[in-house]
Amino acid sequence: MKVYVDGQFLDQEDAKISVFDHGLLYGDGIFEGIRLYKGCVFKLEEHLERLEYSAKAILLSMPWSRQELSDIVCEACRLNGLTDGYIRLVVTRGKGSLGLSPKTCTVPSLIVIADRLWLYPPEYYENGLKIITVPTRRVNAAALSPGVKSLNYLNNIMAKMEADRLGYIEALMLNDQGYIAECTGDNVFICHKGTVWTPPFSAGALKGVTRQAVLEIADDLGVPVKEENLTRYDVWVADECFLTGTAAEVIPVVEVDGRPIGDGTPGKMTEKFLTEFRSKVAKEGTFL
Fold this sequence. Notes:
CATH class of the largest domain: Alpha Beta
Number of helices: 8
CATH superfamily of the largest domain: D-amino Acid Aminotransferase, subunit A, domain 2
Order of helices and strands: EEHEEHHEEHEHEEEEHEHEEEHE
Structural class: alpha+beta
Low-confidence stretches: none
CATH topology of the largest domain: D-amino Acid Aminotransferase, Chain A, domain 2
Distance between the termini: 18 Å
Largest sheet: 9 strands, mixed
Strand content: 25-35%
């Protein structure tokens, strides 16, 4: 596999960064996870826009144009012979001193990895996920904006570990007020009495690209959507629940905290959203 690191494509064994890189030392950096479907990099422009916004928010100056980043992403897919896969685009603050200040980091680093990824087996899309609420809370939106997709993922990792130790592969995360923020790697939606509900960004929800795609699908289908604070009770009594994410796509949830959602099987609206989403992925984006 070829990996892009700071201007060149290298064999994965040779793809290295400095131990003084502030992305490694302090998690000072940003990233995007992007999907490739049948030679189409899905929503690449939207992902690159979010990357630019994240960089601006943390005062990270990127010397690459959007077109340069797009070209590198597409070339990474071509060099690795991919028509379907997952792309991880990482920008770190770059090499600096051991001090916390980024003033010594003069040149940011760019890493692009294109590989295959299967997050959930097909049976989970057919039968649905069972998830659980975990103690670890989402970072307060006032401390670090959920609009920034940063390399600081430790609280999500801890939440994932807590779920795993209890036998679950995904976890529901609350914010410090007790409202639902998101899952460890996915946005959360519920359906109740014909309306779709999802937590707002102010609750700690990431500005997910797949989340936005689902909101657009809802508009196309004429399904009303509300972005409001949700409690666990709201999820427990919902007719349907599903998660969205670049890797997860649209995946049904059939049980939360030991409580069946609806009749305990994937709902009709969730299936409709998944079908509509999968009809878009090979058409809306940048072609190799």
